[in-house]
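Case study 2.
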Amino acid sequence: MSFTLWSVKVPPNSVSLDEARHRVFDFFRAVCRSIPTVMDIYNFHDVVAPSHLRSVVAAKIRKHASVTNPKVIDMLLFKAMEELNNITEHAKQRHHIIGQYVVGREGLMQDTGARTRGL
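Prediction:
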């Protein structure tokens, strides 16, 4: 347990809101750069497009856009970095990633237009 805590590198706290915002943008760039690797590791080419994964990550970041406390932003960023590390280290199984980032809480995104028109 203590070895795990030593191996985690915690960046210093952000001094200002502007610095925290720059860290979030840097993290988003890192996520976008790692999406092709994640697609290869989990064999997502038949399930989802890389653009969909980028939009899901952007939506998760935008969900916390109202947070203005740099310490809270740093904490959220640390959790996000830990999640990205777990995904890229293949610590999660494929169905966990699909359920969390592809399907989401609203279920499969299907065209239900024909059912709603009564056809």
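The radius of gyration is 17 Å.
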